[in-house]
Amino acid sequence: LKPLVPVDQWRELTREGARRFDPDVALYVRPMYWAESGFGGGVMSDPESTRWCLCLYEAPMPEATGASITLSPFRRPTRECAPVEAKTGALYPNGARALHEAAARGFTNALLRDMLGDVAELANANVFMVKDGAVFTPAPNGTFLDGVTRQRAIALLRGDGFEVIETRLAYEDFLTADEIFSTGNFQKVAPVRRIEDRDIALGPVYARARRLYWDFAHAGAQA
Predict the structure, then answer these.
(1) For residues 99-117, b (16+ Cβ closer than 10 Å) or e, as one string?
(2) Is the pLDDT of residue 38 over 50?
């Protein structure tokens, strides 16, 4: 695909669209590209047929009540299997089936491992854990999207004096974590309150991460 729209144009279109809504309404902004035609039975897209659109719609921010998580039987694909480092609709079915499987067992989300058996992310968000005051998160390894909210949360926490370690993490590490929280474009920074049958209290590191992100976001809105 060809990215036809300059960043400044996306921004201006977003502002124009937002002005059509009540200023107090929470909006989700979804820019999209796709190919209108292709070759090889429609499998190989024609970059010259790239089309685009920008969708804005009302999407109330979910309350940060806390997720309950379990280990998913499904895995994240590798670069050899799928475009794992892109925010693409092709990867949504894998996350969706993980969420459905977890829901059938009474959980609201699930940790997915990569093909090596290390934790990669939640079904629809990046994941962090806290142990003895240090913050840990899976290191990007070509199996999950290194989200913008993830990157921002890491930078804000490090700037606030926290040690943030990007590394390989086993599921067992999360089972004994002091805190677990997620980052993503929809819920921003959100807590995990239960993993399997173990309850987890809202912790000070999560609370600080959420406050740092909210302060950053509101400062940008006022600029």
Answers:
(1) bebbeeeebbbbbbbbeee
(2) yes
Place of tokens 């390989």: 168
Domain housing 128: 67-219
pLDDT tier at 220 (50, 70, 90 boundaries)? Answer: low
End-to-end CA distance of the chain: 33
How many Cα atoms are found within 13 Å in the side-chain-facing hemisphere of 124? 18
Classify residue 163: in a domain, yes or no: yes
Each residue's pLDDT tens digit, 128-168: 999 999 999 999 999 999 999 999 999 999 999 999 999 99
pLDDT number for residue 157: 98
Inter-residue contact 84 to 122 (CB < 8 Å)? no
Question: What single letter denotes the amino acid at residue 204?
Answer: P
Domain presence at residue 1: no
- For the chain, how are helix, strand and coil distributed in percent, rounded to 5? 30, 30, 40
β-pair partners for 34: 51
- CATH number where 11 lies: 3.30.470.10
Per the structure, how many domains does the chain have?
A: 2
DSSP 144: S
Measured CA to CA in angstroms, residue 177 lies from 51, 128, 129, 169, 174 at distances of 45, 10, 6, 11, 5
CA 47 to CA 35: how far, in whole Å? 7
